[in-house]
Amino acid sequence: MILDSTFVFDLMADDRDAFAKGVELVEAGEVQWLPTPVVQEAYYGAMTVRGETTTAEVRNRLIGYPRIDVDEEVARTAGRLLAAADDAVGGSSGVGANDAYIGAMADITDDAVLTENLADFEALGVATESY
């Protein structure tokens, strides 16, 4: 399972549904992959004046997840998925670069993105799962 920032943020906010989904994945032996763009989003959220979470809390919440980094294959796949999403609507699909990277990781690993932001990932044509 590829984790989106919405899931990570909900875990940090002690969302019961997100926690239950995490337990379900662990009990099923499902690997929960943390994309490095989600790491960036989590630290950005903690470092803005609007955030209430400290960087130490972010580090502690993220430390146990295996990472998937953006490499050339991910970048190339993200470009392809984002171009197809934009072409499908005849302009900008509204999908951001980080979501394109995360979607590319799901595409490459043939896995689903665990998110509450279904629309962006569905626009990219990747499998999604919610909680």
Report what the structure shows:
It is built from 7 helices and 5 strands, in the order βααβααβααβαβ. With 131 residues, it is mainly α. It has one domain (2-129): Rossmann fold, CATH 3.40.50.1010. Helix 7 links the parallel strand 4 and strand 5. The model has no long low-confidence stretch (mean pLDDT 95).
DSSP strand tally: 5
Multimerization status: single chain
At the first level of CATH, what is the class? Answer: Alpha Beta
What is the C-alpha radius of gyration, as a whole number of Å? 15 Å
Strand order of the largest sheet: 1-4-5
Strand content: 5-15%
Mean pLDDT rating: 95
Major pleated sheet? 3 strands, parallel
Distance between the termini: 13 Å
- Per the CATH scheme, the topology name is Rossmann fold
Shape: globular
* Helix proportion: 55-70%
CATH architecture field? 3-Layer(aba) Sandwich
Number of helices: 7
CATH superfamily: 5'-nuclease
Structural classification: mainly alpha
List the secondary-structure elements in sequence, H or E: EHHEHHEHHEHE
Count of folded domains: 1
List segments where confidence is low: pLDDT < 50 over at least 5 consecutive residues: none
Topology of this structure?
Blueprint: E1 2-3, H1 5-12, H2 16-27, E2 34-35, H3 36-47, H4 55-62, E3 67-68, H5 72-89, H6 97-109, E4 113-114, H7 118-123, E5 128-129
Parallel strand pairs: 1-4, 2-3, 4-5
